[in-house]
Amino acid sequence: MSQRIMTFISLTPTATADAADLADNTYPGAIQGASSTQKIHVREVFIGGQATSNSIATILLARDSQVATGAIALSSANGQADAPWGPNDSVASAAPIVIGTAATNKPRRSASHRLLVLPLNAWGGLLRWQPGPGEDPSLVGNTANVGEISLSAFTGFGGGPIGGHLVYEPD
């Protein structure tokens, strides 16, 4: 197994209601399994605030009730990237799909499958979350509710720009 890291340099997320499409380039990112059986574990979430004044930012890590389909790409507008964590890391079979834009169906955050609520002050606040042993959220496959997770801003988000990363490990 090898770890991977999805990064985003800077974006001001758009507050989105549960079960609504996440608009392209307005959320830190989503990850989907490359096959119907691929399992992925979330190992770390880091978010740093880049705002110039106090502003509360509420980001959710949640499973998606609709998975992204169509032409899927990283968001160059947000400086989104995905790479192996270490120089010798590789993915055993196929690389997971990292999403910033989707042509057909957009990711939709599930209201009943939230995994983490990650509030911070976007004015220089830092948030780092790591699971305890055996407590890491995971996804399996590439279908709704279990096969895709997203980082996105919750309704009422009043924060400014943020940057950060998500470390994950596919089986």
What is the first-to-last residue Cα distance?
6 Å
The low-confidence runs, each spanning 5 or more residues with pLDDT under 50, are none
Mean pLDDT across every amino acid position: 94
Query: Which structural class fits the helix and strand makeup?
Result: mainly beta
Shape: globular
Approximately how much beta-strand content do the residues carry? over 45%
The succession of helices and strands, N to C, reads EEEEEEEEEEEEE
The count of β-strands is 13
Largest sheet: 6 strands, antiparallel
Helical percentage: under 10%
Please report the number of helical segments. 0
Return Rg in Å.
15 Å
Number of domains: 1
Structure description:
It contains no helices and 13 strands. It has 171 residues and is mostly beta strands. It has one domain. The strands form three sheets. Strands 1, 3, 6, 10, 11 and 13 form a six-stranded antiparallel beta sheet that branches. Strands 7-2-12-4-9 form a five-stranded antiparallel beta sheet, with no helix packed on it.
Key terms:
171 residues, mainly beta, five-stranded antiparallel beta sheet, 47% strand
Could you give the topology of this structure?
Blueprint: E1 4-11, E2 29-32, E3 39-49, E4 56-66, E5 72-73, E6 81-84, E7 97-99, E8 101-102, E9 108-121, E10 126-129, E11 138-140, E12 148-153, E13 162-170
Antiparallel strand pairs: 1-6, 1-13, 2-7, 2-12, 3-10, 3-11, 3-13, 4-9, 4-12, 5-8
